[in-house]
Amino acid sequence: MGSNDALVALFKELTELTILDEGSPNAFRVRAYENAMDAIGTYRGDLSALSEKELTRIGGVGTSTAKKIREFFEAGRIAKLEDLRKKYPPELVELGKIPGLGPKTLLRLRGELGIQNLNDLRAAIEGTTTIFF
To answer: Can you give the pTM of this predicted structure?
Structure first.
């Protein structure tokens, strides 16, 4: 996997976690990361050779995104992504793939019922006794 492909994968994950963090797939940061994914994915040059200023000349890459790209090449990581990974572990993110379970509902389930993973969700559902007439 080339460095541009690796960056696309990281920004895809950053987008998914930011949707959870912002509570909306339409948040400004989410759209910015989606634009960055497109820009990085279609750029055919060596991103690692570009400065922050040069990166911002690529359509879809803003100042904040350029800093994250440089951070990736200089430190081998993106701190914002690592922070979001701690806040939203993979088991919780997987729940977001259930149709109809959007970020707001997921965060509500986590906050009100302590649901962190699929097993927690199953236990909560099995523990619910609702009678419909």
So the answer is: 0.82
